[in-house]
Design brief:
It contains 4 helices and 10 strands; from the N terminus they run ααβββββαβββββα. By secondary structure, it is of the alpha+beta class. The strands form 2 sheets. Strands 1-2-10-9-8 form a 5-stranded mixed barrel. A 5-stranded mixed beta sheet has the order 3-6-7-5-4. Helix 1 crosses helix 2. The radius of gyration is 27 Å and the shape is elongated.
Amino acid sequence: MSQDKASRSHPAAQAESSRARLILDERAHRLARLDRTESATVADQTASVLLCPVGENLYGLPMIEVASLRPLERLSRTATVARGGVMGLVADSGRVRQVLDLGRLLGAPATREADGYLVILKAHPDFALRLGERPVSVAVTPDPANPERAQVASLGDHHANTLVILSVAALLAADLSVGA
């Protein structure tokens, strides 16, 4: 006799099957609630940054400050922007932006390379940051003892590495030639 016929003909089997289903449903709901609680706790402790390698160091730009990212295809250089981190100008979406070299702003030697990646900033639409290496978006866990540092929580090449969280406002304020 098949199991379906047995459960139809025996009321005790039907009750046991209903009870087992109820237990399994209750367990599934409980586990789903635990998973959501754990996910919310992890989400509260992490932030999303654009991981920017500069030489041997890792830096993070808060994603909340990044409007977009694209390859740097064409950079116009001008003779009047020889100071500071300004590399030149770029036309983007009908707007001319000053391109600042992130490495130079952080104290790395100046580069004459006009390729790389361009980070368009939300709060500073007249500026863009040039990165030599391709940045990636990662989740980080801030260091409670040092809010300027964080540890990469995302899996990948940089998992568990420490990086410095950058302030775009501080970067732009440190460059004396910006806005000149």
